[in-house]
Amino acid sequence: MDTLHEVRDTAKVERIAKSIEENGWTGAPMVADGDLLITGVHRYAALRELDLEAELDEHTIDIRDLVEDYDAKIEAMMEEDGDEWYEALVRIISEMDKATAEQYGMDAD
To answer: What is the average pLDDT across 41-59?
Structure first.
């Protein structure tokens, strides 16, 4: 699995790993676009640190399950507006229902 960005806070990874060891998975699902994690970089790193990468699928949801017609929307934005994939993704997230975006940690800021 590729990630949208690198781990930026190793202490956060350690806290998440410790929480997973003590309580199991309690966080929100990570969100992916195919094989690319959009959210959950630190949670994914914690799973890898604990050698629990095999559990990735049960803790990940595809963005297509959250955004109706995601593929068509992102393609249209890229073709019509000249957006790069990331810019189109940010626009789609900004148009999402706020409660859903917050639930999955997808703020467009």
So the answer is: 94
